[in-house]
Amino acid sequence: MKQKVLVLFGGVSSEHDVSLNSACSVIKNIPAEKYDIVAMGITKDGRSYIYNGSPDMLPDEKWLEDTENLEPAVISTDRSHHGIIRLANGCEIEKIDVVFPVLHGKNGEDGTMQGLLEIAGLPYVGCNTAASAICMDKAATNAMADFYGIPQAKWVAFDKYAYTADKTALLANAAEKLGYPIFVKPANAGSSVGISKAKNIDELEKACEKAFEHDKKLVLEEGIVGMEVECAVMGNDEPVASVIGEVVPCNEFYDYDAKYLANESELHIPARLPEEKLKDIQKAAVNAYRALGCTGFTRVDFFVRESDGNIMLNEPNTIPGFTSISMYPKLFAASGVPYSELLDKLLQLAIER
């Protein structure tokens, strides 16, 4: 008997559009012989619908124009339902075996959706509530990395209240501790949304104002000169690491434009590093995965510092981009796990957990 998988997409997030592209690819590649798919979209203002149309309609919000295939529905928090409630015809209950939340950023990757699915008693792909929340919050991630002795850039964090109260002192402290250039990041955002590179005090102030548009807490990090590398990790109790990929951004750093719009960044799989260094990065990725409490899957990003070759944690991504050409699937494809097989493995890991 086929298992029924609920694929969640969209979301109230600055990464809403990225989610639509990821979900389109996921829906089209989940093995049809093993799974029946129910697709549920969440609009930018938080309405949820079952979408029965073609996944090709997801990008650019075309699915919302396909009104004949939209049906209001919600995830039921009543565990006896073990699924969703279709609202169109007298609140029909539909049981679900496993959920794939293809939701990037806030309200999907940050533990909020994971908490809802925990309450509902539904197995889901990816990290649990606690690990999702920690990995989404860059300040929490950095604090955990420091606690476990994981090498990373020097950093400071502050919120909008503290910034408003004494901006001059906070920026001066950051400049003294980190030196320039400084990367300014919203603490809770992904896909490099709201991130800037500041080379002086004026740029630092402007970068903070920009980042505050996306979150009330910021993380500032020293600039690391070196190679950007990424490792896909998969598993529950016994996680495995993929081959290592190298990113050569087309812009000054790997920002949103370089990731999704310009289409000119270079990817090298495997990364152009000695075999022993590649193995060290794999070990570091699994170590960070375990330390942060990750399960299911996460892409762990690092810098290999140019000055001394040290492997420095950049950040974990608990629901990374998931189109067929995204780095996570590409890394496992290069490791011998094709895209559809990878999706199957992730769904089964969710059910096993």
Report on this model:
With 353 residues, the chain is an alpha+beta fold. It folds into three domains: 3-124, 3-Layer(aba) Sandwich (Rossmann fold), CATH 3.40.50.20; 134-150 and 224-352, ATP-grasp fold, B domain (D-amino Acid Aminotransferase, Chain A, domain 1), CATH 3.30.470.20; 155-222, ATP-grasp fold, A domain (Dna Ligase, domain 1, 2-Layer Sandwich), CATH 3.30.1490.20. The protein is 33% helix and 27% strand. The protein has eleven helices and 16 strands. Strands 6-5-4-3-2-1-7 form a seven-stranded mixed β-sheet. Helix 3 crosses helix 4. 45% of the residues are buried.
SSE layout and pairings?
Layout: E1 3-10, H1 16-29, E2 35-42, E3 48-51, E4 70-75, E5 83-86, E6 92-95, E7 98-101, H2 112-120, H3 129-136, H4 138-147, E8 155-159, H5 160-165, H6 167-178, E9 182-186, E10 196-198, H7 201-212, E11 217-222, E12 226-235, E13 240-248, H8 256-261, E14 266-268, H9 275-291, E15 296-305, E16 311-317, H10 327-334, H11 339-352
Parallel strand pairs: 1-2, 1-7
Antiparallel strand pairs: 2-3, 3-4, 4-5, 5-6, 8-11, 9-10, 9-11, 12-13, 12-15, 13-14, 15-16
Helix pairs in contact: 3-4
Task: Please outline what is shown here.
Helix content is 33%, strand content 27%. The protein has helices spanning 16-29, 112-120, 129-136, 138-147, 160-165, 167-178, 201-212, 256-261, 275-291, 327-334, 339-352, and strands spanning 3-10, 35-42, 48-51, 70-75, 83-86, 92-95, 98-101, 155-159, 182-186, 196-198, 217-222, 226-235, 240-248, 266-268, 296-305, 311-317. The longest helix is centred in the last third of the chain and has 17 residues, at 275-291.
